Amino acid sequence: MHLCENSALTLVSVSEEKGSQCHPPPITALIAESGSTQSLVVAGALGPFKVPVVTLKSTLMQNIVKYVFVSYFSTCACLSDKRKYPTFFRTIPSDYHQAKALAFLVKRFGWTWIGALQSDNDYGRNGITAFTKEVETLGVCIAFVGTILRTYPKSKILEVVEMIKQSSVKVILAFVPEGDLYPLMQEVLKQNITGIQWIASEAWVTADRPSTPEMFKSFGGTIGFVVRKMAMLKLGPVLRDINPYQELNSSFVSDFWETMVGCKPLSSVNVLPNITKICRGNEKPDYTNKFFDVTQLRDVYKVYQAVYAIAHALHQVVFCEMPGGNVSRKCLNVSDITPKQVRCFLLSIASYSSDIRPSNWEVQHIPVGYFSPSANGKYDLVIYKDKIIWNTGNLTPKAVCSEICPLGTRKARIKGLPVCCFDCIPCADGSISNTTAADCIICPIEYWSNERKDSCIMKVTEFLSYTETMGIVLVALSLFGACVTFSTLVVFIHFRETPIVKANNSDLSLLLLVSLILCFLCPLTFIGEPTVWSGMLRHTTFGITFALCISCVLGKTIVVVTAFRATLPGNNMAAKFGPAQQRGIVCSCTAIQVVICILWLNISPPFPNKLYEQSNKKIILECNTGSDAAFYSVLGYISLLAVICLVLAFLARKLPDNFNEAKVITLRMLIFCAVWITFIPAYISSPGKYTVAVEIFAILSSAFGLLFCIFMPKCYIILIKPEKNTKKHMMGKNTKHAG
Fold first, then answer.
1. Which of 106, 191, 584, 703 has the most crowded Cβ, counting Cβ within 10 A?
2. What stretches pass through the bilayer (predicted)?
3. Looking at 123-210, which runs of residues are DSSP E strands?
4. What is residue 60's predicted lDDT score, i.e. its pLDDT?
């Protein structure tokens, strides 16, 4: 670095003896260093002397520079800072474009888990920083960043090699100049580290030392970006015309001749003959050497661009020609040109393309695509996949920390690792993942996830239907109860003139049987898909028919009590409680329930409803009561009638055994109350269609209880023991007690 500074200072120093051969006049512009680090040093050294500087691959300047510095290979994006390096120019795109191109490259091939190597200088650090900034929004993670330099001790190189071996990455980006990378390449080759896809920066992708058959074992298939090759056909004759015997004082020609031919011309030999091989004069270079191939030039063409840029700037300064104007006349001597003038004209013409083309190599460097700005201001990356020869085989290398989560799973971050490293966890019930997105999405409320959790399927609609087993059983029980009740009704009608039927108040008994038939048929409205009409019908029918049924039982209970209390001296209650009063009690008690139901239907009627909370995989279709207060008022009123019946029947429990219907009613009311007391908690806690089933069971239990307790003993006497169906038999026990 000190040598670069000293050389730069020598070039720009102003001699006190103008025109002296030892001290030539200071330069106006400088085509200099290829490396970004060296360009930074030169630009920094020339800055205080106000020397404009132009380079081809990097851009470095001090604030008020007088000399132009042009670089042909310095690519560090830091050199584009015109506040620091206002007179730095280059004829190669900066690493800003290369970092963007590399980011496009890794994204194109799906590489999300890569390693990175940087040189311990501005070129490497700025390059990796720019690349990291580009890929951080693309979901690409950098597993490690190793730092190397050609002057590092071997121990540091081995640390980086060990880092590579221990890591799971299969793709590594090396943003390193060839000279800094070569020690690591040798160690990688020595330790037989293969199977890694290398991504190269432009500084080494086409360099000679990595492009050898020995290196191909570990680095074959490396892919990277380089500047476009250009042809300079006019340069060919110039190279072929080089002759050391015509240009006797050119050290460059002498060195060139020694390199091409293998000997030094006699005129240029300044050393002992036994040390340097002297040419005989008839030697000729091998013009088939790649050095003379001027059809595919990269760096040379960038030097050519730099020379011509400065030449055009000087021409415009000498002839006072403004950019885009015509040549008028010479207005300035060459010795009077200032670097500031050159810089101004360079700024007007220094517009270089950012088009860079990638190259993948297998000893030969094969173009496999290109990267360039598009017309809309974006960038295009075109890859010729059929030309790529990967280091890992025929298939595109995989570079992921974690495989893409399969459908039905989601990503779960692993603590302490980058976002590219994750576990795949199955989606929760009710959510799916049918893409490679990081999270699961929740299914719509009427849908549920399938077993694979990769699609939403319609939830099963659940209600108590006529076709399922439980529905069939309940329908059968309901129809059976209705048939048995109807048969009992037929028996009572047929034997209505017999003592036992007359004694049981035939009118109320027949009305009770009719109400029981309705009670048995009522559950049919509870089965099937709920609708608006079925919802209103099921609850009101249930309330009214049961109120009618219990009202009839209440009437029968009152008849029993009054009939036997009438035997007491001076008691004329039986005369006051005739058939009209009995029907009045039944109608009035039932009418109250009708009023409650009418108010219910007008204020807040039942309606069909879908429940999503009770079951994740099912939609429960229910008939919502609309108003819980109204529903429990209906139940409460029926319970009130039942309690009154129970109390009255309990008071008449000591009537004669042969006709003690009060005991039967007492037993029946106890069963009825027990059924409905247990119904409420069971109704509340039962899920889905089982709620309806519990309600139907309570209705059928109550109806069967009334039927069997009240009417089966009478039917037994009527049909099986007709000899007991006499007035004498029924009054026999009373006669004994009277005697």
1. 703
2. 470-495, 507-528, 540-564, 585-603, 630-652, 664-684, 696-720
3. 141-148, 171-175, 197-200
4. 31
Q: Report CA-CA distances (Å) from 66 to 43, 135, 309.
A: 11, 38, 17
Rounded to 5°, the CA angle 730-733-739 comes to 135
pLDDT for 208-217, tens place per residue? 888 888 888 8
Burial of 356 (0-12, 13-18, 19+ CB in 10 A): buried
Q: 536: which 2 tokens?
A: 């209103």
Question: Which tokens is 459 given?
Answer: 């939830």
Radius of gyration of the chain (CA): 53
Beta bridge partners of residue 148, listed in sequence order:
119
Q: Looking at residue 380, what DSSP letter applies?
A: E
Strand order in the sheet with 29-32: 29-32, 68-71, 88-90
Give the C-alpha separation, 488 to 707, whole Å: 9
Contact 651, 663 (CB under 8 A): no
Q: What are the two backbone dihedrals, phi and then psi, of residue 18, each rounded to the nearest 5 degrees?
A: -65, 140
Contact between 496 and 718 under an 8 Å Cβ cutoff? The reply is no
For the stretch 512-535, what's the b/e string if a residue is b when 16 or more beta carbons lie within 10 angstroms of its beta carbon? bbbbbbbbbbbbbbbbbebeeebb
Cα–Cα distance, 51 to 87 (Å, whole number) = 8
Cβ neighbours of residue 378 closer than 8 Å, sequence gap 6 or more: none
Alpha-carbon span 58 to 69, nearest angstrom: 10
Give the Cα separation of 711 and 553 in Å (integer).
Answer: 12
pLDDT of the residue at 61 = 30
Q: How many angstroms separate the CA atoms of 409 and 431, rounded?
A: 10
Residue 542: closest CA among 553, 531, 532, 550: 550
Residue 381 host element (H or E): strand 379-383
Q: Give 336's DSSP letter.
A: G
Residue type, 85: Y
Q: How far apart are CA 735 and CA 739, in angstroms?
A: 6
Tell me, rounded to whole angstroms, the distance of Cα 511 from its chain centroid: 69
Tens digit of each residue's pLDDT (9 = 90 or more) over 511-564: 889 999 999 999 999 898 888 888 888 888 989 998 998 888 888 777 777 766
Beta bridge partners of 411: 424
Name the average pLDDT for the chain: 78
Partners of residue 30 on adjacent β-strands: 69
Asked whether 486 and 516 are in contact (CB, 8 A), the reply is no
Give Cα separations from 569 to 352, 565, 656 (angstroms): 132, 9, 18
Structure confidence by residue, pLDDT tens digits, 590-629: 999 999 999 999 999 998 888 887 667 888 888 888 888 9
Q: Percentages helix, strand, coil for the chain, rounded to the nearest 5? A: 50, 15, 35
pLDDT at 473 over 80: yes
Q: Of 137 and 153, which is predicted with more confidence?
A: 153
Whole-angstrom CA distances from 94 to 308, 374, 514 are 20, 18, 100
Tell me: the pLDDT tens digits for 644-654? 888 887 776 66
| pLDDT-wise least confident of 82-96, 252-266, 335-349, 662-676 | 335-349
| CA–CA distances in Å: residue 413 to residues 10, 19, 123, 139, 422 | 59, 72, 34, 13, 5
Residue 324 Rama label (left phi>0; alpha psi -120 to 50; beta):
left
| DSSP run (H or E) holding 548 | helix 532-565
- Using the Cα atoms of residue 424, residue 426, residue 428 and residue 431 in order, give the sign of their dihedral: positive
- Report the predicted TM-score, pTM, of the whole model to 2 decimal places: 0.59
- Strand pairing partners for 174? 117, 200
For the chain, report the end-to-end CA distance as a whole number of angstroms.
144
Other CB atoms within a 10 A radius of the CB of residue 477 amount to 18
Q: What residue type is 410 in one-letter code?
A: R
Q: How far apart are CA 641 and CA 298, in angstroms?
A: 107
Beta strands in 300-368 (DSSP E): 356-362, 364-367
Q: Mean of the pLDDT values across residues 704-731?
A: 80
Q: Are 27 and 12 in contact (CB under 8 A)?
A: yes
